[in-house]
């Protein structure tokens, strides 16, 4: 039986029978549904890159979160639980992954969307931040926000306490990142931004002095922690690797510098800015850092 015969399959397929019509309608409906539920849903459910915002209480973390999300900071209160929002780079800022893409490439816009995770700064609630570091979900970087007006060293005054608190918290985060990098499983590099907030205030330290103050105070924290470990006998085994995991930086001795963290894949950047400036927010350097990390 040839294809041109009245009973042939091609003739039957082109014949306006009820079976042919039903099959055609089913195919016409099934193909778009397949493309939508299988291809579109699978691509849209891809987890977005995220950035973790940490720092002591009162540094302005939640205000920064709302600023990045809405374009303007909102009135906030002390956070008790983590908060995750979706944000996008400003149209004037280009992500590093899009730098060499054509402006007409629609896929270039996909990488501008990211998640911001705000964590409480109170000492008893910092485990939320630590959990996000030990079990990151597409974590691209960490923003450590500090109140630059609360870091000036004095003669035992309240600013000493602010500097000590910030240094201890930052020490713990850096030590956690060091342990994570020196584990058995290879992990990607982790950039960390120290965002010196409230630069609009007269008493705020500029970014270079924030860097020097934190390095000097972390040196003191590391010395006291190392002494405590030696007194308790922790880290005194035969393995040098075990000691390095317990002591931040180069063996816990000498002056600590953020540059030491590059050996474990942690690049530290310090940049000043202001979330609630008198003349408006000044966070351009922070946006640039996020763009470089995307």
TrEMBL record:
Transmembrane domains' residue ranges: 20-40
Signal peptide: none
Keywords on record: Endoplasmic reticulum, GTP-binding, Hydrolase, Membrane, Nucleotide-binding, Receptor, Transmembrane, Transmembrane helix
Protein family according to the UniProt entry: Belongs to the SRP receptor beta subunit family.
Keyword GTP-binding: yes
Entry annotated with the keyword Cell membrane: no
Topological type in the membrane: Single-pass membrane protein
Name the record gives this protein: Signal recognition particle receptor subunit beta
Gene Ontology CC entries for this record: endoplasmic reticulum membrane
Pfam families: SRPRB
Location relative to the cell: Endoplasmic reticulum membrane
Major localisation: endoplasmic reticulum
GO molecular function list: GTP binding; hydrolase activity
